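Incident log, entry 3
Record: 4-amino-4-deoxy-L-arabinose transferase-like glycosyltransferase (578 residues)
Problem: checksum mismatch between cached and fresh output.
Input:
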Amino acid sequence: MKPVRLPASATHALPRWALFALCLLYILPGLIGRDPWKPDDAAGFGIMWTMANGSLVDWLSPHIVGLAMPDEGPLAFWLGAICIKLFGWLLGDPLAARIAPICFFLLGSMSVWYTTYLLGRRPEAQPLKLAFGGQPEPRDFGRTLADGALLIYLGCLGLLVHSHGTTSEALQVSLVAFSLYTATRLFESHSTRSAIAFGLVLGLLVLSRGWIVPLAIWLGVVALATAHERAVLLRLVLIVLPLAALPAGLWVFVNHQLQPFGTTPTEAWMAWNYRQIGVPTLSTLQYFFKNAIWFAWPAWPFAIWAVYAWRRQHEALHITLPLTFFGTLVLLAFLNPRGEEAILLPLLPMLAILAAFGLPTMKRGAINAVDWFSVMMLSTCATFIWLGWIAKQTGWPAQIAKNAFKIAPGFKPEFSLITFLIAAAASAGWIWIVYWRISRRPSVLWRAVVLSSGGIILCWLLLMTLWLPWGNYIKSYASVAKQVDVVLPTVKRCVATNLGPSQRASFAYFGQIQFSQFGDKNCDYLLLQDNHRGNDSTPNLTRYNQQWKLIWQGRRPADREERFRLYRRVYSTQTEQE
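Fresh output:
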């Protein structure tokens, strides 16, 4: 027997404009007015900016002004570079590059919604018919479940930071969600068009972050088709697999033909793919279970309940398909020898979809417990964000102000009326949502997660308005890069360096520094980065086999260890004169 018994009154869907506005309210804060932050966001922007200002070889071989970046894949950076070329003159390069993550996020959100809608209107997912009628129509039930899945997806803590960065992870999670949507279409229609779409999406996944994830997804879907839907098995082998290999195959072929910078990046890219597979270790398992609890909150409790509640309908597609995707990606997470958040991110779309099917079966007491937990925790977080901002502006409470300025010494807060009004309006909206939920006690399915997603959006919006200047101060290299630009001559000269990806990208963009290409150290200037605390230590320059004179040193005020030093080459005649 199906576990769902539901009246039609519980399936009122949110208006489309409200869903779209909610997505924009989620993604826009943190993209407007923010510098490229270290580490991953600045590095990703550096690759996009280098491509946008380079030639064909720069697009084929991703790098940050001469620093090779063979890991991951080029697709996300291609799209960001296109946005810079199209809109950089109008919005500035950093904001123009972030048009790509906005599109990535909207693609992922739409994929979650439409996948849940397709699965939710299937006959096996429908609630039991009531004795006197009044049960929801399949389309209404599917729309309501889709609304719930999207709200859960927006409420996932792990998605918050990664969806706002110029990184390939933001594209990968959206393509994983889109691949689940195309796979759902394939199992529903058994059509060649759906197989072509599924294959092309897997091919784009290869170009986003390697072939390990799309290969695992394909194998999982093949296993599912073998067990339950043999009609699509032939299309998976003859259509999906070749199309999945096509995009990456073209990229590899062109690289081998043109040999950008005298070599091909695909060898290092393949080596990076192989490093993602290893023997499961205790540390990997510990990392997964320690971080997945908060990373996938609040999706995982609802998802676990959904699998349990629908256990007697274990062959239903709305459970088996997202569960297959989830299982294959969890296996990859266990096999990955390096614990990193990037291995957890692709799990979120499937968890959100599964969680949506758990909403109709949850008891009222459990829903109320989740609501009260969300209200207390997120309201407390929002209160502390406001309190910290007040302390930063006025100096009261003194201890909170002291801690804020201790992290960012030298920071001078400025009051912005526009950001204050936006933050105040968002806070008022949160109070209204809480009042609506408590006073009216709506029976709609998505009531259990509206407070979780709304509170997450509120806290993020407050941070990205009230605290954005403070974040730029402690996470951006703009100020120190401009200091170096002042010291260097007006006519740009070659600068050798040991800077990492995020530092190199920030110094190249904000300081307009012309770094050496691919390790060439025959430059008149040398910019070194070290992590010593003392100001009197001298870095080892013997490996450069030249004489150098220190002409500038500095650091970001918020970083006590990281330090930068700029040297000028000293020739023999200069040495004698000095």
